[in-house]
Amino acid sequence: MCDLPLSTPQASTADDFEARLVQALNHGGLLLLTSIGHRTGLLDALAGQPPLTSQALAERLGLQERYVREWLGGMVAAEVIETDPDTGRYWLPDERAALLTSQGEVNLAVYAQFMPLLGSVEDEVVRCFQEGGGVPYSRYPRFQEVMASDSGQTVLPALFEHILPLAPGLVERLESGIRVLDCACGRGRALLAMAERFPASRFVGYDLSEEAIAWGREQAERAGLTNLRFEARDLSDFDASAEPEAFELVTTFDGIHDQAQPRRLLAGIHRSLTADGLYLVQDIHASSHHHLDREHPLGAMLYAVSLSHCMTVSLAQGGEGLGTMWGRERALAYLEEAGFHDIEVHQLEHDIQNDYFVCRP
């Protein structure tokens, strides 16, 4: 076989792919540096500040200067932080600080944490490729913390103005007083916000994570919320253990796709609703067909999250392993199978990551 000339489309495609991979390596380094900068407070300390030396920045945060200096070098190489070589000072331009710190509407540094967090279990995921099974939930000690930060930027800011109004009359019912359950509630930040906003309603949160439930309880006690309780609970048998017609509203926020038994949970949610009840679902916006996810703006990342957390955590419990990217088509099929036949699907302008389903029994 003769060598192809460099001008052929195949060679051009190979060159482009190589360039993409080199860029991905740099971007992977940037995500790790950004996560470190977020967790150490370095990014916030630089936001809106005059240029600082590495020593001054380290002293401000009580960090080791040698580590701060190396981190600054990486962020300069990534063209995130600027520097003046004559003075040895560094600064974070305001337009970048607005995207990487609490100064802006959305702090993208929060999402950078997913990559090193999930990378910490890579050896175990590789083992699962070879032996089967999954990585247990206990191997992700910071996952609830990161997810709470995620929902704090997607769900909470839109909860009262955009999400709850997707169901006409729901806000008024909450104001009058109804019973509300949030399944797979995590740390329960949405519940905490709703319990404070709607004191006449009663709220319950279930989650498998003892750590997340303890955090939610502590916050509820601090806020004096007597209309909210949390319970650590395995929902894999919820189809049989759910109390019939116990709630007028059930919610799940990004909580179905990593369940061990998602069908059973959905059937239990249907069982737990009153005849005039409502199920409000937020879950990942995707297709159930791989080729249709090519244009997804976060497709590769969300599949990586699925492989390294959501799917494998479910499989570790002997579950279905549905995965993050189960998709709208499969979600609709599962909801109908659970008994929901009046289903509306919505997307919010600010949220490219999620679909919102309004379901009635």
TrEMBL record:
It comes from the Bacteria. Signal peptide: none annotated. The lineage of its organism: Bacteria, Pseudomonadati, Pseudomonadota, Gammaproteobacteria, Oceanospirillales. It holds the Pfam family Methyltransf_31. Residues 30-101 form the S-adenosylmethionine-dependent methyltransferase Rv2258c-like winged HTH domain. SUPFAM superfamilies: S-adenosyl-L-methionine-dependent methyltransferases, Winged helix' DNA-binding domain. InterPro entries: Methyltranfer_dom, SAM-binding_MTase, SAM-dependent_MTases_sf, WH-like_DNA-bd_sf, WH_DNA-bd_sf, WHD_Rv2258c. Residues 175-288 form the Methyltransferase domain. It comes from Bisbaumannia pacifica. This is Transcriptional regulator.
